[in-house]
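WARN no homologs supplied; continuing
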Amino acid sequence: MNQQPRFAPIPFVDVAAQRRRLGARIDEAIARVLGHCQFIMGPEVGALEAELAAFCGARHALGCASGTDALLLALMGQGIGAGDAVICPAFTFCATAEAVALVGATPVFADVAEATFNLDPAGIERAVAAARRHGLKPKAVLTVDLFGLPADYAAIAAVAAAHGLTVIADAAQSFGAAYGGRRVGALAPVTTTSFFPSKPLSCYGDGGAVFTDDDALADVMRSLRIHGQGADKYDNVRIGINGRLDTIQAAVLIEKLKIFSEELDARARIARRYGEGLSDAVTVPRVPAGSTTVWALYTIRLAPGARDKVMAALAAQGISTGAYYPKPLHRQAAYRHYPVAGNGLPVTDRLAEEVLSLPMHAYLDEATQDRIVSALRAALAH
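OK structure emitted
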């Protein structure tokens, strides 16, 4: 006789729930692409770019093959390369620093703010000093809007301006959020994002976009996106990449963008319920005044040493969780030889051992969420 699981599994991100809602519409959109057979740079790509730009208030939006390619285009488009230093947090996914290294520049790791998990503006000064000690030219600050919350762009821009640095926003997790009344995509000279399937706005594979108000930079990045193309595909005026967004992925994103605002409202409601149920038991995330977040991840902090036990207890009840990022970049083999600001990154190291992300998506019903909260509270009590 088959044994039934004691607990129904709760996925970390339920992509299938959204698929059940939008499946027919997305299938029709994909079928239209299959009908016209313009699989590369088809009409849906341009239509999506116009809608993305209008959504966030940027002059230009360029679809590309991934969030990593978006970062490459932003860096390459500004001529950042060998001998240049790009300041970035170590508490992030590797793609942030990977793109810097791939263009020949040097990532210089700075610490993050304890309250927001985002780049600490005060750490930029120390990172600039570290870069200069290594004989590098500080060229840019690459922010990361971790877990969906925009970085402190006003403070970062002030420090960047004082040192002649450009600001590049890595908004892979935050598209749809706002800071100071402006949406992500219009907060920095150039912004990148990802449409990886787990992101709040996602496609059915890899995808990304770059946003800017700079007409000249947009033209350069459009060229770089297609092998450095000039007047036509056999006229290459610079070294570029194959960074195009597939037409099918653009068609998927157009349909998802239609309900994106509604899904963001649902995420905000779910985050509020998490806060109400957990604020007396763990350190819950807080959104600074003047900002909104898309809650790409709902990330709490636990007491030092508690995470493994809590994750195991929740897993035993079928509840998926995530630890982002247990080994910060400055401690990973591929990146630990790069400069680190100041006397180390104590906040980053502390957060890497204490944060825990709970299931979060727009289709998390209240009963399931209550089960998560109860299980977490029980795990903390033992």
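The two ends are 34 Å apart (CA to CA).
OK
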